[in-house]
Amino acid sequence: TRPMPVLALETSCDETAAALYDGERGLLSHTLHSQIALHAQYGGVVPELASRDHIRRVNGLLREALAQASLRFSDLSGVAYTAGPGLIGALMVGASVAAGIALAHDLPLIAVHHMEGHLLAPMLEDPKPKFPFVALLVSGGHTLLVSVEGVGRYTLLGESLDDAVGEAFDKTAKMMGLPYPGGPHLARLAEGGAPGRFKFPRPMTDRPGLDFSFSGLKTAVLTALPAGASEQDKADIARGFEEAVTETLAIKCDRALQQTGHAALIVAGGVGANQRLRARLADLAERRGAGLFFPRPAFCTDNAAMIAYAGWARLAEARPASGKLFTTARWPL
Ligand code: KG4
Ligand code: ZN
């Protein structure tokens, strides 16, 4: 493979990030600033604050990424950016900066789908999964099962009809008084919980198909949560919730592997950092004799390394999604 170093920017939500990837040496550098502290007091991402903070950070982060890789703009073969889906004002920051660099240095501009970045993230690890594989994408905004036949060749197998898994984690955590984003806090609380005390439904597992529904689960938790619940009650409920989610995802992954006949499962997106989910899927993969691939936890959540890889792969295969500057809040994979 030719090196073709690509600079990538990610500003779709509440992480500002830059990264450099080339086909010879792999990931050269990546930098990131999380806005979690900025939004924590509001209990969720405030779009206007996100856009402004991206503007403040993006230049420093991309220059730091170049410096770490000892590269200059003139060494680049392309500039990639997350074009969507995401917060439109936030997306516009990365898009404008990427377009400016591309214009100034006469480089191809590569628009990358945020979820494509997530589902190619395991390609940043060693060993890489081989195509085709089944990808489970579990983030704050999406829950997807995808058949990945190659770069740019994706078939949607199933998706959530309502709340995304991460959203269900976050809303449930909020009900229990945990800080935003609640997923990791809920997971920590669940560690001290008694298994089996609370048994919550495994939505949509009793019928065929690969779609999900998680909005009912938070209602089930709300109903189970007694007034003046003790810390132990909360931990037990967190444990029950986590088990219901994990089991539901595992059942659908198993079905997707069976249906496609693919020999590998990859997991990506922020919820992919969940240890119980990882353990449950490892179990499933072993029983099926399938390969199981996870990005490192830092590449499960939003980052620019995955966008750099996707951008580079598009450029290397000469199939850039679009050379035109655009952003879009909604964008089917
Ligand atoms: O992919 P991501 O960083 O952002 C997007 O939504 O695109 O995913 C963030 C989501 C949040 O809902 C967060 O609570 C959840 O991933 N999350 C977790 C864990 N770590 C992050 N959920 C459960 N267990 C975790 N350990
Ligand atoms: Zn994401």
From TrEMBL:
Q: Where in the cell is it found?
A: Cytoplasm
Q: What is its main location?
A: cytoplasm
The record, for InterPro entries, names: ATPase_NBD, Gcp-like_dom, KAE1/TsaD, TsaD
Q: Which residues bind Fe cation?
A: H114, H118, D302
How does the cofactor attach, per the note? Binds 1 Fe(2+) ion per subunit.
Q: Which cofactor does it need?
A: Fe(2+)
What is a single molecular function from GO for this protein?
A: tRNA N(6)-L-threonylcarbamoyladenine synthase activity
| GO BP terms, alphabetized | tRNA threonylcarbamoyladenosine modification
Q: Which family does it belong to?
A: Belongs to the KAE1 / TsaD family.
Q: What does this protein do?
A: Required for the formation of a threonylcarbamoyl group on adenosine at position 37 (t(6)A37) in tRNAs that read codons beginning with adenine. Is involved in the transfer of the threonylcarbamoyl moiety of threonylcarbamoyl-AMP (TC-AMP) to the N6 group of A37, together with TsaE and TsaB. TsaD likely plays a direct catalytic role in this reaction.
Q: Which NCBIfam families match?
A: gcp_kae1, T6A_TsaD_YgjD
Provide the protein name.
Answer: tRNA N6-adenosine threonylcarbamoyltransferase
Instruction: Give the organism the record lists.
Output: Hydrocarboniphaga effusa AP103
- Gene encoding the protein: tsaD
